[in-house]
Amino acid sequence: MELRYLGFEQQKNVRSYRFDILVKGEPTRRCVVTADLALFLLHRIGIQDGPGLCSTKLTSALEDLTQEVHELTDADLRAHALAREDAALRKAAARKSGPRRSAVSKVAHENSPWRRSGL
Questions:
Q1: What is the DSSP letter of 24?
Q2: Is residue 71 in a domain?
Q3: In a domain, 117, yes or no
Q4: Dist CA 27 CA 34 (whole Å)
Q5: CB 23, CB 43: distance < 8 Å
Q6: Do 51 and 86 contact (CB within 8 A), yes or no?
């Protein structure tokens, strides 16, 4: 299965993302995912993340793709925000406990022919 993003339409505070669903040997189906833009602001999610979130929503609902209209809910956006926060915390923790210079590299640095004496 392949999803093809076709663009969006916006009416007031609701954005409708359009997708084609391509399955080999089957006719192409059109699908729309709606999202309330106030939820993006509430969860501090960039509007540019919308198509990716919709794509994730559609691929996770494979058995429910017979419906033509889906919705990005508050729960979907909250889960994305929490996952993003988790990833940032893991990255910060990895940075804190990152690789340190080993004793071998210190010795190699001290014995380097490029190192000037007295520095």
A1: T
A2: yes
A3: no
A4: 23
A5: no
A6: no
pLDDT in tens, 10-25: 999 999 999 998 889 9
Q: What is the DSSP string of the chain?
A: -EEEEEEEEEETTEEEEEEEEE-TTS--EEEEEEEEHHHHHHTT--GGGHHHHHHHHHHHTGGGTTSSEEEE-HHHHHHHHHHHHHHHHHHHHHHHT-----HHHHHHHHT-TTPPTT-
Does any domain span residue 114? no
Report how far apart the first and last C-alpha atoms of the chain are (Å, whole number).
Answer: 62
Q: Which two tokens stand for residue 115?
A: 């190192």
The total of structural domains in the chain comes to 1
83 is in which domain, residue-wise? 2-97
Residue with tokens 């919308």: 50
pLDDT (tens digit, 9 = 90+) per residue, 64-95?
666 788 999 999 999 999 999 888 888 888 77
Residue 64 lies in a domain: yes
Single out the residue of 45, 52, 42 nearest to residue 19, CA to CA: 52
| Torsion, Cα of 61, 65, 71, 76 (10° steps) | 10
